[in-house]
């Protein structure tokens, strides 16, 4: 079920009504959420529900097994079972064909012709997200950071919680699971701000990302026909498409969770206002970055040790992160580029220089900040070309065209409407950059009619200028 | 909680009332609309007698020059609308015959690959239903044509159009047309075509659905049942055909083969170069003169 669909507009109020009808019965509320979440997921493809259920039950019993066992060996075995099952599913559904193709190519390179039969595998929606979420539970229980739950309904609801099931934020068991055990009370201001966040998410997704998508698709599919400046412009548009798409989804997810009294982690903190690449990665897809930080980077040694180890760890985390996004070399190179951009900052020990909000308390940034933001944005845009291109050769061809004389000509396409939408997004997010989302300050407008007029106009824009209904990009990851 | 739900209900109700209330004025520009697609729906009432009524889409109003029929003493009207497919055809035909005193007996219906495309009959871009002599309400439209998923968008569009009508936003110079024919002296070139090509690329994925074929044949049958002389005709279509996939085009050819056994069919397949086109696939006035003359030859 898409957030930007009529189906969801009907589904949400029904679940909301039922859920708060049982506000005094926590178990009933969790059961309602579980049924709603499975229904939400099954709306796409009910066959894959069994995958979530199986994976959740394994992790539930792994947790219980760890609770009752004091033997380190047995606990480790249980953890390995969880990792094997979860990553096994992910590996099969997402990476099987990639590894097979590369294996065959490698043999061909050495003159050995082998034939292979790739499988026609459908990637279950959200598998990369819920797999990581449930893995965090097993690892945290193993590390004794979290008491395993005995309440199976709460656990199943935690894994399948519909607002963030298919595209995150990837919640930690330590944050989300305890919320299923506590009584939730309806908080008026939290719910109204949740609605505002949903509205803002819809604007970013439907108005910005979906309007940009057709132009980006066209130019990336036929890049040979476009000059350097057009390709650069489209790469910038793609940067906003993926931001609008993914952060829009996160905003809708977080806002929806707030309606049910849940608090999900912030997933995007206005990343395009970052002054260096380290800040960008603290603000972009925070739930995934911190997941990799805590479960991969730190166990590898993090930034402690020799420069060789530091460099190795940075490359590992960025390349794995790239690979998480998709079984394609483009994502791996995208990760490696980000590692290369990050390395100098880290080796010079400047990766925590820009930790506060840019131009805090000021209306506009200063010239230095503008240059830093512009440079960081440009670097991310260049990396995005690899992320978006169908293959590595295309990405290099696009870059070659961008860095040619044709960069200094006129663009062949001027997407005026899309640029206006992006400007609205940038302005509103700049104003709200010290807040959690782009509409939070609207709550400070004292007069109700003005506030409502604002919402009304935004809804009109969303419906009237909503682009072609595109699936959320991150569903494929 | 009560306060929250109450406010959401009040907001939703207020929005609904405002949207529907103001949306009521979405067609007050009926007589002053600048777009030929819209004003021709009403302009036809000035026509008392008609020998031939052309029904079609943009290829028809670009390609059939009605002036050439005047010299033959034939009264014609080019009732063609952008993106028109079988649903639009039916609506605009019924709209036309309401007001013409001596209803035409010869109906020429244009057929082109785009007639069966899912991009045709676009009420969002061309809300013809508002501007008919007997306007069709958004509610009726969605029920009659199973457009439930478009209802909210249609309502909001009515609202925004009404707002611009009330404040008279965006008043523009009226597009010229002659009896529905839209003349153009523009000549296409490769550079301008390349800029627009991306709009057409989505056609490649389309398939002709059974429902669209049935709608088209139903329309033809409905006018045939009124003792009209029907001619189905095709204007040069090789330029648009290349944007569709082979399967689509062979399905389209089968439809033509089928229809040509039951009805009179004229195919004007003159191959014309760029100088006869105003853009990728639409003829300019020079092109229109050539193909209209060819069509007239078939009448003689």
Explain the layout of strands and helices.
The complex is a heterodimer of chains A (477) and B (300).
Chain A: H1 6-21, H2 26-45, H3 49-68, H4 72-109, H5 127-142, H6 152-160, H7 173-181, H8 188-221, H9 228-259, H10 277-283, H11 286-300, H12 307-325, H13 329-347, H14 367-388, H15 392-402, H16 416-431, H17 448-465
Chain B: H1 2-23, H2 36-43, E1 52-56, H3 58-63, H4 67-70, E2 76-80, H5 86-99, E3 106-110, H6 138-144, H7 151-166, H8 190-201, H9 210-224, E4 229-234, H10 238-241, H11 246-262, E5 264-267, H12 285-299
Parallel strand pairs in B: 1-2, 1-3, 3-4, 4-5
Notes on the structure:
- The complex is a heterodimer of chains A (477) and B (300).
- Chain A is mainly α and 477 residues long.
- Chain A has 17 helices and no strands.
- Chain A folds into two domains: 6-185, no CATH class; 189-275 and 354-476, no CATH class.
- Helices cover 67% and strands 0% of the residues of chain A.
- The two termini of chain A are 16 Å apart.
- Chain B is α/β, with parallel strands linked by helices.
- Chain B has helices at residues 2-23, 36-43, 58-63, 67-70, 86-99, 138-144, 151-166, 190-201, 210-224, 238-241, 246-262, 285-299, and strands at residues 52-56, 76-80, 106-110, 229-234, 264-267.
- The interface between A and B is medium-sized, with 25 and 21 residues.
